[in-house]
Amino acid sequence: MSLTLIVLLPFIGAVLPAIMIRAGRNACATATGSVTLLALILLMAKAPAVIAGEVFQVSYSWLPELGLNVTFFLDGLGLLFATLILGIGLLIIIYARFYLSKDDPMGRFYVFLLLFQGAMVGIVLSDNILLLLIFWELTSLSSFLLIGYWKHLPAGRQGARMALAVTGAGGLAMIAGMLILGDIVGSYDLTVILQNADLIQASPMYLPALILILLGCFTKSAQFPFHFWLPHAMAAPTPVSAYLHSATMVKAGIFLMARMWPVLSGTPEWFYIVATAGLVTMVLGAWIAIFKHDLKGLLAFSTVSHLGLVTMLLGFGTPMAAVAGVFHIINHATFKAALFMTAGIIDHETGTRDIRRFGGLLNLMPIAGTIGIITAASMAGVIPFNGFISKEMMLEEAWHTMWLDQNWVVPLLATVGALFSVAYSFRFIFHVWLGKPRDENLPHHPHDPPFGMWAPPALLTVLVVLIGLFPSVIAGPLVAATAGAVIGGELPEYYLSLWHGLTPALGMSVIALIGGSLLLMRHGGLMSVTANLSRPDAKAMFDCGIAKAVALSRLVSDNLHNGSLQRYLAIMVIGSIGIGLSGFYAQPDFQSGSRELLEVSPPAAIGWLLLVVTCVAAVFMHHNRLLTLLLVGVVGLIVSLGFIYLSAPDLALTQISVEVVTVILMLLALNILPKETPKESTPGRKMRDGIVSIAAGLGVGGAIWAIMTRDLTNSISSYHLANSKVEGGGTNVVNVILVDFRGFDTFGEIIVLGIAALSIFALIETVTQGEAAKRLANWVVDHRRSADRHPMMMVVATRVMLPLSLMVGVYIFLRGHNEPGGGFIAGLVVSVALVMQYMASGFGWTQNRMKVNYHGMIGLGVIAAAITGVSAWVAGLPFLTSGFVHVHLPIVGEFELASAMGFDLGVFLTVVGAVMLALAKLSQVERMAEHVDINAEPMDHDPSATAAPAASPEKEA
C-alpha cells in the first residue's frame, strides 16, 4: 500500500498549494514540501531492502481483459530514479520559494510541479507498460504547463509548445512500439516482458518495436536529431529548468532505455542506433555549448551532451557500460541540478545571464561562486569530484568499443566530446567567477542570495565532493542495486575509485583537460569563425513545419468544416455507404440468413406504415419548423410503441422520456428562429440528396436484414441473461448491463453527456455577450404568443404534479435493478417534471426557489459514478464491478442493496444536471430575444407579496 501511496501522494497533495497560498507563501511552500518529504520518507523506508535485492510489488485489477492493471514495482532502478525525483524535487521546492517573485503565482507553480512529480514517479514505478504510457503522456502535459509558466513571455509559450509537440509525437510512436512488444510477449506487464528477451529479439517485429520505442526515448531525452527542443525550454523559470532538465523529464527516456535494456540490447540494431545517436549527441551538444553566451543555454546544451553520453553507454550493450551509465546518471543529476540553481542565483542577483558581462563574481558572491566552481569542475571531469570517476569509466568503455570494425572511431569521438565538455565547463568557471569584471554596470549589484536559495545547491555540491572522494561508500550500494536491475543478471567486476592506475582512459582524460583548456584560450577566435558559418536553425525549421501543418489543416478544414450541417451529414453518410459497399465487394454473393421469417402482424404493419408516413411527412414539411418537430416527436412515440410491442419496457420508457425532453428543449431553441426555413436547396441539390438518402436507407435496411435473418444463438446476450442475477444481483438485464457488465461504457457516456451540456452552456454563453447579444436585443419575434404567459390551470397542475412526479422518479430509480427503470430513466422523468415547472411558472419564479448549481450536479454525478468504480478496486475487483447483499429489516422485510445503486445515482444526477443546464441557458436566450425582464413576468413575483394589504398613509409617512 505504501508503494501506491508514494505514487499518489504528489497527485493528492497537488490540491494543497492552491489552498495554502491563501495562508501565505511560506505556508504554501511548506505544504508542498511536506507532501514530497512524506513520499521520500516512505521510499527511503524501503531502500535498505531494495538495495539488499528485494523487489516490492503491488497490483490492482483495472481492465484485465485489455491487459491494463494498476501495478507498481520497486527495484534498484526504480529506487534510484524515484530518489532523484523526490529528493531533488524537495530541494527545488525550497529553492523556488526564494526564487519566485511576489508577482509570480506560487500556488499555481507548486500545483504544476507536484502533478509533474507524480507523473514521473508513476513512470519509474510502473510495472504495466500501458500504465507507464499514461504517466508518460502526463509528464508531457504537466511539463508543458511548467515550461510555459511565465505565459506572458512569448519565448516561454513557444518553448512549451515545442517541447509538447516533440515529446508528444515521440510518445505516440512509443505507444505503438509498446503495443507491439506486448503483443509479442502476450502480456503488458514489465516483469513478464523482461523475462522474454529471446522471444522478443527473435520476433520479426523486434526492429519496428525497437525503432518506435527509441523514438519516444530520444525525443524525451533530447537525443539527436530531436535535441533542439530542450534549449528553447530554458525560457521556463530556473527551478523548472533545474528540475526537469537535470533529474526528471529528460531522464525519462534514459530510464526507459535502461528499463528495457535486458530485452532490447545486445543486438547490432540496438548498438548502431543507440550508441551512434548518443555519440553524435554528446559531441554535437558539447560543441554548441562552448559558444552559448546565455548561462542556461550553455547548461542546456551541456545537458544534451551528457544525456548523449549516458545513451551511448547504454548503447554499447555491455554490462560494464551499463554500470558506468548508471553511475553517471547519479553524478549528472547532482552537479547539473546545482549548476542550474547557481545560474538562477546569478540571474536573480545580477539581472542578467549573459556570460560576456560577467567576470570576477567570486569576489562578490563567494558562496554561490564556490558552489558553481566545484560543480562545474565536476562537469568537466576534474579530479577529485564525482564527474571525474564516471568520465573515466566512460572513456574506458569507449576504448574497448569498435564501430564498423574500426577501433579508433569511438575512442576518438569520446575524447573529443570530453574535450569540448572541459572547454564549456572551464568557460563557466573562468568567464563567470574568475578574472576581472567585464561589465561594471550590471542591472543589479551582485551579492550572495538568502540561505534558502543557496542551501539546496550547496547540499548537492557536498554530495558531488563526497561521492568523488568516497564513491564506493556513498554511491556503491545504490549503483550496484541499480545496475543489477538494468543488467538483469550478474554484475561485472568493478570498483568505484578515484584512481585506477595508468590506463588509456587516464591518458584520454588528460588530453581532454589540456585540449579543453587550449580550446578555451582560443575561444574568441573560434567564436568569430563560427559566427560566420551558416548552419541550420532547428527552431526555424520547427516553426516552418508547424506553419505548414497548420496551413494544411486549415485547407482541409475550410473544405470540410465549412459550417454546413448538410455537408457534414453527406460526408458521414457517403463514408458509411462506402464502407458498406466494401463488404458487398468483398462478398459479392450476398445472401440473407437461414432464420425462419415470421408473419407480419396487423399491429406491426400499422406501426410500420405510420412510421413511414410520418417520416416522409417530416421530410416534405421541413420548412415548417414547429410542425417538423412535432412529426419527429411522433416518430419517437411510434418507436416507443414498437419497443413495447417487442417487450422492451426499459427502452420504451427511455425513448418516451427522451422525446419529451428533446421536444421541450427544441421548442425553446425554435422560439428564436423564424417560423419557416428559407428555401435554400436547388432542384439539383435536392436530387443529389435524395439519391444519397435512398442509398443510405437501402444500405441500412440491407444490413439489418442480413443481421436479423441470421442465427445469433452464440451472441453475448445469452451470457447476460444467464448471469444477470447471479453476478449482477438484478433481474432487469438491461439495467445490469448498463451499470455492471458494460458499466465502463455507461461511465464514458455520462461523461460525454456532461461535456455536451457544458458545451451547450459555453456556446450559448457566447451568444449572450458581445455582438450576438446586441443582435438578440434587436430581434423581432415572428411568432404569435398567447397573452397569458402562465395559464393558471397549467400552474396549478404542475404544482400538484411536481411532488408526485418526483416520487415516481424515486420509485423508478429504486426498482430499476429488478424491474423496468433505473437512474437514466428516473433522471429523465425528474427532468421532465422540473421542465414543466419552469414552463408553467416562469424561469425566474422557479429558479428563485430552486437554487441548484447544475454545473456542480453534473460533476457530482460523474464523481459518484467514479467512486463506485474505484470502490471495487479497494475490494480487489476490476473497476466498476458491482456487489450486492440482502438485508432484512423489521416491518420492511428483506430487500437487496447493490453497489450499482451508487453508480446509478451518478447517472441520475448527471442526466438531471445536463438537461436543466441546457434548459437554463436556452431560456436565457429566449428571454433576451423576446426582451422579457424576469421581474416583469407576473409569475416571477411572489404571490404572497402581491396579496399583502396596502400600507396605511400613516405608515407610509
UniProtKB/TrEMBL annotation:
Annotated keywords: Antiport, Cell membrane, Ion transport, Membrane, Transmembrane, Transmembrane helix, Transport
Region (Disordered): 935-957
Domain MrpA C-terminal/MbhD: 610-674
Comp. bias (Low complexity): 944-957
Main location: membrane
NADH-Ubiquinone oxidoreductase (complex I) chain 5 N-terminal domain: residues covered: 65-110
Boundaries of every Na+/H+ antiporter MnhB subunit-related protein domain copy: 794-916
BP terms from Gene Ontology: monoatomic ion transport
One CC-aspect GO term: plasma membrane
Annotated localization: Cell membrane; Membrane
Family annotation (Pfam families): MbhD (PF13244), MbhE (PF20501), MnhB (PF04039), Proton_antipo_M (PF00361), Proton_antipo_N (PF00662)
InterPro entries hit by this protein: CPA3_Na-H_Antiporter_A (IPR050616), MnhB (IPR007182), MrpA_C/MbhD (IPR025383), MrpA_C/MbhE (IPR046806), ND/Mrp_TM (IPR001750), Proton_antipo_N (IPR001516)
Membrane-topology annotation of the record: Multi-pass membrane protein
Name of the molecule in the record: Monovalent cation/H+ antiporter subunit A
